[in-house]
């Protein structure tokens, strides 16, 4: 472009990049805290400021096409938090078009993969409380997510997908084994309780 001051162009681009990285770190941190609050069932402590921060981040990346890569991790973390929140507190799974903020389709798919690990934690917490209904409910959502992500085999356009699919499958199989063991243990304990009542 005629008359462009290259020094000013690069100074502005560098300044924009620094702001993008700052907001990106804040989003990742906020989503991690929100996920922790969901795990602890502390709904009142959850902040949705990440929504506005994501919108701001997208605005900043629009001016420079090569900055689009900085959206990936924050968007994936947001998807993980938002879908996890919806499952735990609202009992429903959020499809791509139901998100409050528009994200790249690739980041949605990669983000929901990570929800499987969070749901495993909820299954284990339910097992600790002898809450078989909750454990099975969370496991069904794990299956739903895995069934969704396994449909995609576009490994050259969704970077890191195969690895996440493999991790999801491993978590799912391990969790199924935990639930089976828990159910058998629960049956055994109930049978022992009956035997004690008969003796008494």
In short:
The chain has 200 residues and is mainly alpha-helical. The chain is built from 6 helices and no strands.
Task: Give the topology.
Elements: H1 6-39, H2 49-62, H3 72-90, H4 105-128, H5 132-149, H6 161-199
Task: Please tell me about this protein's structure.
The N and C termini lie far apart (93 Å). This protein has 200 residues and is an all-alpha fold. The protein has helices at residues 6-39, 49-62, 72-90, 105-128, 132-149, 161-199. 74% of the residues lie in helices and 0% in strands. 24% of the residues are buried. The model has no long low-confidence stretch (mean pLDDT 94). α4 runs antiparallel to α5 (132-149), α4 (105-128) packs parallel to α6 and α5 runs antiparallel to α6 (161-199).
Describe this protein with a few key phrases.
74% helix; mainly alpha; single chain; elongated; 200 residues
State the end-to-end distance: 93 Å
Q: Note the main sheet.
A: none
Q: How much strand content do the residues show?
A: under 5%
Question: Taking all residues together, what is the mean pLDDT?
Answer: 94
Helix vs. strand class: mainly alpha
Helix coverage percent = over 70%
| Radius of gyration (Å) | 22 Å
The SSE string, one letter per element, is HHHHHH
- What assembly state would you assign to the polypeptide chains in this entry? single chain
Number of helices: 6
Number of strands: 0
Low-confidence stretches: none
Silhouette: elongated
């Amino acid at each position: 472009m005629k008359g462009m001051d290259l020094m000013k162009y690069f100074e502005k681009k560098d300044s924009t990049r620094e702001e993008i990285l700052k907001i990106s770190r804040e989003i990742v941190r906020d989503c991690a805290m929100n996920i922790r609050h969901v795990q602890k069932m502390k709904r009142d402590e959850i902040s949705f400021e990440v929504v506005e921060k994501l919108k701001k981040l997208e605005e900043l990346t629009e001016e420079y096409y090569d900055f689009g890569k900085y959206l990936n991790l924050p968007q994936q973390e947001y998807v993980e938090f938002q879908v996890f929140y919806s499952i735990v507190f609202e009992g429903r799974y959020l499809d791509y078009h139901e998100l409050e903020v528009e994200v790249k389709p690739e980041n949605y798919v990669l983000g929901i993969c990570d929800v499987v690990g969070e749901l495993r934690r909820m299954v284990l917490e339910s097992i600790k409380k002898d809450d078989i209904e909750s454990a099975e409910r969370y496991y069904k959502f794990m299956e739903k997510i895995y069934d969704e992500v396994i449909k995609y085999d576009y490994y050259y356009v969704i970077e890191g997908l195969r690895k996440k699919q493999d991790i999801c499958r491993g978590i799912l199989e391990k969790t199924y084994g935990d639930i089976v063991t828990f159910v058998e243990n629960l049956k055994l304990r109930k049978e022992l309780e009956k035997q004690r009542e008969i003796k008494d």
